[in-house]
Amino acid sequence: MQLSERDQTLLDGAAGEAAQQAMSALVQLGEAYDAPDMVDIGYAHVHAGMALYKGDVELIEATAQQGARMVVPASTNIANADMGDWQGIGAPETLGRLQKRAEAAHRRMGSATSFTCTPYWAGHWPTWNMHIASIESGVTVFANSVLGARSNRDGYFAVYAGMTGRYPRFGLHLDRNRQPTHRVTVSAQPRGTAEFTALGYAVGTAVGSGVPLIQGIRRRPSLDELDALGVGMATSGGVAMFILPGATPPFGEDADAPGLPEIEIAEAEIAGVFDTFCTGGEAGFDLVHLGCPHASFEEMKYYAELLAGRRVAPGVELWITTSRAVRQTAREAGLLAPLLASGARVVTDTCPISCHFACTCSPDPALGVTPPTLRTILVDSAKQAHYVRDMIQCPTLFTTSELAVESAVTGRFVPRSRRNG
């Protein structure tokens, strides 16, 4: 792999040990994927340092103590606790305080302490053809597809890219890999983020890690629906980019690619995703969760409308998860007070699959993390349903956002099939 003069300087340690280690890791990554050289990145969405793993926080702290600094704008991914109110979600103080240590380390490194899986709703909006790095698969697919930026699914390497401003040129950083691999014809007409996550989940299951060209959706989806579509694909498959002609750049409404493998997605496939994730007891859900991925301001407005003048049923918790930035904007817009008045809890920094609920993470016993016993979690996102099942090992109920709110206030599950029946 050809290195620039600056790359070699970093690799030789001229900018310090932390930058040297970061560049060494990126060189190894590039060589593993036969990258010809490196590209400049303009933004990185980086690992938070997860408090459920004490060593993970200590790694972030050690990196900061070595003098690591982000040389491009960088946001932090979702964490293991709401650092402003860990007590409110039932997390032990040891977990919350350890997560705060990771936050302090990121501040020393110059990262924006956003702690969200939707940094674009918090103002981090990479532009057309910008090379970026991202630890979060949902950020990757949104950036590649909706914004026209260029990113792979990077894992911890996003931290190293942020520290150096460089990344190996392979994968979706190359034009040849940004072409469609499958044509997906959608005969159903989904509406709302829940149905778009289900559509995405069905598409991802069918195409794996391909780049689907999606046709048949007759109206232009909203930004939230495009976000939901992408995270659904990234959850069930390895999709990091999709093409929706007329909605995703640079493909116009007449974009086509003859000779591709053909896939059809009908209402039956979308309904099947909802059915797959309705395994819990309809009368025994403990938690209703909205905001996966973390809610945008537009979604917060919609939730406030749905909950106006209503109260969450006794014995049910309603969580709305979002970023710190969106929560503050919602507060200033007068949305937060009515949401809280309904009995909903607005949670930042984390979500059910990333907080102390996770029972498969083998946390440090010294943290005192005892996952609660949960009968069923009711969700409006195929992504959340998938990971609740796999990471929390908890049954789920999956319905639309509107019907999830109806379920929360009545205490009785309202399935999507009832809307269509």
UniProtKB/TrEMBL annotation:
<dbReference type="Pfam" id="PF04412">
    <property type="entry name" value="AcnX"/>
</dbReference>
<feature type="domain" description="Phosphomevalonate dehydratase large subunit-like">
    <location>
        <begin position="1"/>
        <end position="401"/>
    </location>
</feature>
<keyword id="KW-0456">Lyase</keyword>
<dbReference type="InterPro" id="IPR036008">
    <property type="entry name" value="Aconitase_4Fe-4S_dom"/>
</dbReference>
<dbReference type="GO" id="GO:0016829">
    <property type="term" value="F:lyase activity"/>
</dbReference>
<dbReference type="InterPro" id="IPR007506">
    <property type="entry name" value="PMDh-L-like_dom"/>
</dbReference>
<keyword id="KW-0408">Iron</keyword>
<dbReference type="InterPro" id="IPR015931">
    <property type="entry name" value="Acnase/IPM_dHydase_lsu_aba_1/3"/>
</dbReference>
<protein>
    <recommendedName>
        <fullName>Phosphomevalonate dehydratase large subunit-like domain-containing protein</fullName>
    </recommendedName>
</protein>
